[in-house]
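Example 3.2
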Amino acid sequence: RLMQMDKMGAKLYSNEIFFEREKVKRLHVYPNPVSNELRIELPVTSFSRTAVAIFDYTGKLVASKEIMLTANQQYTTVETSHLPAGTYTVKCYWRDELYIAKIIKQ
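Structure, written as tokens:
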């Protein structure tokens, strides 16, 4: 349970006892470190439309791309040449699951 305390010191407890945690899976990306173009693979089994998002170390969205994948083409590429050198997080949702990868931009 969560406890919230106001400025006067009064405590209020939440009624929620259980929180559902999001399923997180490893996103397959390469090359890593990346220079100009990142290849992203998802294990899709049918036609799927989703989005790929890249966040910098502060959590700011720096790139995104809507993608369409099929069982015959389970990958896409994302241009990364415009990104400064650093560490980034790549996220993609597919079928209520979150796929995440950390990448290094050279």
